[in-house]
Every structure is written in structure tokens, then in C-alpha cells.
Amino acid sequence: MTARVLVTGAGTGPAENLIRSLRAGDRGLFVAGCHDDRFELRASAADARYLIPPSHHRDYLRALRGLAEREAIGLLVPTSDAEVRRVARARRSFGRRVFLPRTSVIELCQDKYALTRFLRSRGVPAPITYRVRRPGDVASHFRRLAGSRAIWCRIRFGHGGLGSLLVETPAQARGWIAYWMRMRGVRAGSFTLSEYLPGRDFSCQSLWREGTLVLTKTFERLAPFGASVGASSVAALAKTVNEPRLVAVCAEAIRAVDPRASGVYCFDVREDARGVPCVTEINAGRFSMSTNLYDLVGKHNMASTYLRLALGQRSNVRDEYDPAEGYYMVRNLDTPARIFHADAFAEGIEDARP
Q1: CATH, domain range 201-344
Q2: Could you report the per-residue pLDDT of 175-199, keeping only the tens digit for each?
Q3: Beta strands in 176-307 (DSSP E)
Q4: Model pTM?
Q5: Residue 156 above 50 pLDDT?
Q6: For strand 48-51 and strand 30-35, is the pairing parallel, antiparallel, or unpaired?
Q7: What is the distance between the alpha carbons of residues 263 and 246, in angstroms, rounded to a whole number?
Q8: Are 283 and 109 in contact (CB under 8 A)?
């Protein structure tokens, strides 16, 4: 029987990229999609599309369970932080239909400040970070971070670089925090200040089952997407890389947060001034927005491998690190992410420059 999967957030970038990857691994796969936004939902490539309440609604879980029964779903895949957290907390009501990290691990990873403190306490490289409890804390934190030529001011929750800005003075940081407090209703206590890591910017995604690393892949971000203000963890241009030291740091981080880890983990990692990879973020339980670069190149499709693990099937992965070097991903507004090998970049292009 062909596997049947329910993907939340259907129509959004993370969900549609995941659907694309899953289908690349199994053309016969049945994918149902659901979303609380009917307009985004209508644009989904899912085989069946269902309008449901938002993840914070009291009927959200009941709607998901009803869909899982109606469509004989074998695996439910949440695609946003809020959905991952809500489904994880109610995992018992879904039986074997979810393959997520432990709820306490998800909650730790979704708090960037708590995660950074935890990793540093376990000896895992992570940026020195301080919590801003009130705007008056900014100056003292700047003094404590005096060795950094610039400082990251960012919100401790959320994704995509939400509320992130590189600042050089306490006044800039206070102004940025004041803007978010006044215009967006974000509390000052939601912000952190951390050392600036000037090195290369990486992403790593890995699959685990009961404490064993099954598969991991890595790429380097070369240019951020739409980051005219602040910062973005979404890449407009990225390339696959072979960086065993990056894999080692990420594996060390997962073994620190959960020796019995299961599910998918996606990392943001930056090098410090000495070239040491430092973990800045772990997205536990959801796939990267750029998952196609992990799935459509190399020996193994990571999304398909996740599906097999979730369904209790044997993995066909022999070497857990699958570094498919030389591939680039190009992303722009209103176009799907495109992936090319370096050798193919000149194909079909004629140089008409004078």
C-alpha cells in the first residue's frame, strides 16, 4: 500500500518544498495538505486540501485527528514551530502517526536563549548570549561583549531571523527593541544580545532514531534572501559543502539535548573569528525551508528517509554523512528554488557583455 502523508501549512514555502521532496522520492505517495488560510491552501500541490482551524484554536487537534482517520494517514508532518509544539504535546492521541523529538527538547530548542545557555554549559560551541530583561540592560551587556566588534540583537523565539539586527552601539540596540515593542507588541524580555560570529554561515539537517544518527547533510549560505533590514536565515544562494567538523558539532549538540533523540533536526551554524563552528539555532521536529537542497542531490533523499524511519521501515543509509559537493541552490521571489551543479551553470548562457 502506498504511504499516505498529511502535511500542515499546505501552500506555504516549507510545506510545498517538503511535498516536492517527498514526491521526488516516491511518485506514488499520497499527500494530503491542510492549512487555516484558504488562499495559501488553494495554491498547494497536495492531492487533497483541507481547511482547518489555526494551531492555537481549541479544535485544531480534533480537526487533524479527523483528517488522519478520514484519509487513512500513516504520517502527520507539521511544518511550523507552533504546529510542531502543539502536535508534540498531543502525540499520544495520534498514536504512531508522528515522528517528533520529545516535547521538552522541542520547547528547549524553540527558545534560542535557553538553548544557547544549555549548549555552552555542556561545552558545545555556541555564541555568548545575554538576555535583555529591560532596555536598561543593554549598556551593561555591551560592556560584557566588549570583545565583539558588533553585536547581534534578536528575538529569542521565531524563525527566519525574526527581529534580528546587527548593531554597533547600545543606542542602536535600544532603538531596535523600542521599535518592536511599540509597533509589533514584542516585550523587551524577548530580546537577546550575543557576540557577532564573522565566519561562514552554514545549515545542517540531520535525522535521528533512538539516539543514533541516521543521515546528515550540510550547505553554506552565500547570500541571504530578502534581508535589506535585519538578517535572514533563508538563503537566496547556497551551495552544498563537505564539512565533517560541522557535522561533529551538530551531532554533539543533539547528544547533549537528548541522548535518545529521534526525528529531524535542522541547525543554523556560524563560524567564530577562529573558524570554530558555533550552533546558533536548532529547529527540532521540522524540516528546513531549503530542504530541497538536502533531498534532491546526493545519494539519499532526506525527506524520503524520514518517511521510512517514521513508518518503522529499515533505512538504506550506510554512511550517515552524505556530502553532495558542488551543487548550488538559487531562490528568488515567485520562483521555485532551482538546483544546479557547478559544472552546469554556463549551460545555455551566452556571454554578451562588451
Answers
A1: 3.30.470.20
A2: 999 999 999 999 999 999 999 999 9
A3: 191-195, 201-209, 212-224, 235-240, 263-271, 277-284
A4: 0.93
A5: yes
A6: parallel
A7: 19
A8: yes
CA separation for the pair 304, 315 (Å, rounded): 10
Signed CA dihedral, 75, 111, 55, 41: sign only = negative
Q: What pLDDT does residue 228 have?
A: 46
CA distance 277 to 280: 9
User: Are the beta carbons of 4 and 308 closer than 8 angstroms?
Assistant: no
For the stretch 209-218, pLDDT in tens is 999 999 999 9
Pick the CATH number of 4-98 from 3.60.60.10, 2.30.29.30, 3.90.1480.10, 3.40.50.20: 3.40.50.20
User: What is the rounded distance in angstroms from the CA atom of residue 178 to the CA atom of residue 220?
Assistant: 33
Query: Residue 274 phi/psi, 5° resolution?
Result: -95, 0
Nearest to 67 by CA among 113, 21, 132, 10: 10
CB atoms within 10 A of CB 46: 21
What percent of the residues of the chain are helix, what percent strand, and what percent coil, each to the nearest 5? 35, 25, 40
Q: Please report, for the chain, the start and end positions of each structural domain, with discontinuous segments joined by +.
A: 4-98, 128-195, 201-344
User: Is 282 within 8 Å of 233 (Cβ atoms)?
Assistant: no
Answer for the pair 15, 8: CB distance below 8 angstroms, yes or no: yes
Nearest to 82 by CA among 335, 286, 277: 286
Orientation of helix 81-89 relative to helix 60-70, angle to 10°: 80
User: What's the order of all strands across the beta sheet hosting 75-77?
Assistant: 48-51, 30-35, 4-8, 75-77
Q: Please give the share of the chain, as a percent, with pLDDT higher than 90.
A: 85
Which CATH number among 3.90.230.10, 2.60.300.12, 3.30.1490.20, 3.30.420.40 corresponds to the domain 128-195? 3.30.1490.20
Tell me which DSSP letter residue 342 carries.
Answer: G
